[in-house]
Amino acid sequence: MTALSRTLSPRTVNIDDLRAIAKRRLPRVVFDYLDGGADGEITLRENCRVFDDITFRPRWAVAVPQCDVRTRVLSFDLSFPAILAPVGYSRMMYPGKTGGECAAAAAAGDAGTIYTLSTISGHRLEDVRASTKGPAWYQLYLVGGRSVAEHAIDRAKKAGFNALVVTIDTPVAGFRERDPRNGMKELLGGSLFSKIPYVSQFFARPSWFASFILDGGTPELENIVVPGKGPMPLIDIGAALASAVVTWDDFKWLREIWPGPIIAKGVLSADDARRAVDVGAEAIVVSNHGGRQLDTVSSTLRVLPEIVAAVGGQTEILLDGGIRRGSDIVKAICLGARGVLIGRAYAYGLGAAGKPGAAKAIQILRDGVDRTLRLLGCASIKDLNSSYVSVPDSWRR
User: Fold this and answer.
1) Which pLDDT tens digit goes with each residue over 304-342?
2) Number of separate domains in the chain
3) Which of 19, 176, 205, 289 is catalytic?
4) Which backbone phi and psi does 96 adopt, to 5 degrees?
5) What residue ranges of the chain have pLDDT lower than 70?
6) Domain membership of residue 300 as a residue range
7) Which long-range CB contacts under 8 A does 202-208 form with residues at least 24 apart?
8) How far is CA 367 from the centre of its chain?
9) Residue 151 annotated to the active site
10) What is the pLDDT of residues 169-201, one digit of tens each?
11) Which residue, 33, 184, 194, 322, shows the most beta carbons closer than 10 Å to its own?
């Protein structure tokens, strides 16, 4: 047992506990990158709070000796209905050759679920794919242009990634106020003099800092290879996103070069849901980027019923944003999602204790799903429907 995994004591019982451990272990700039949202962080908070608006309607005096929490998303059998979402810069949260994205992917595979790799990864996609014994999806930004993306997609095909997740909600990067306060730009690419006001936060976390230095410092983006220049430096990603807008027309091109399922991530309206169906997306992710892009947009759970109604079963629907408990997953499924993507929930675990921390986060949520089903008097995920929850009248208007 490593010193880090020992931080996961029996008192580590929920995702907030993992968040607290990650906050103690990570430098402020890294933790706040993970923890923060755009502008006033209203959508970030609402993503979590909105689950409180949905109340359960259990069936009592029902014997449920065991529950079946397995599900099937597209053609993939999952041990429970949660997929690890793409989280950029994960290698900064747990540095090391087998850390970051590789550690999270390994935890997902061990748990019997899918890991989704962000384009903005500190590890080569081939190494991440080799780290998991489960399915893996590749999340795509068009940073660097189509030719750079085509090269990454070809690598993803050859490495054995099973689906392509196309993020549609990043015409520019959202303004995350914690980043400039913490000196993100200066620490990534500024002069030595400009770094001085911010470096003390690294020295305050000596264990993380030592692993960061041993790992070679800030990683380049190994999956964004610019012809004639090599991997893109992390500092360049903001400007690159601003010239990498994904449009619905791009889905036709992607269909020509990607043979597997294509998933549209970032849908927040019935109109966009129907557009995703029209361009042939096999699934959509109802997502506001974890509250990290446009602030004061709707929480994802709030728009889920509208999107379910608009799609009418023509494509599979997943939800991300605000998932912190197994009961949140159950509520999303009751309202029509096939499953959910979890981002911060497992990333807090990764930042807290590497692979054991990510595994702990997954286990917390899985146990919560099982317990919630038993308390509802429901024997299987497949039996969940809207009769198990009450929705506020205001949602029906």
Assistant:
1) 999 999 998 999 999 999 999 999 999 999 999 999 999
2) 1
3) 289
4) 135, 155
5) 1-6, 397
6) 5-396
7) 202/27, 204/27, 205/25, 205/26, 205/27, 207/3, 207/25, 208/25, 208/26, 208/27, 208/30, 208/95
8) 20
9) no
10) 999 999 999 999 999 988 887 777 888 899 999
11) 322
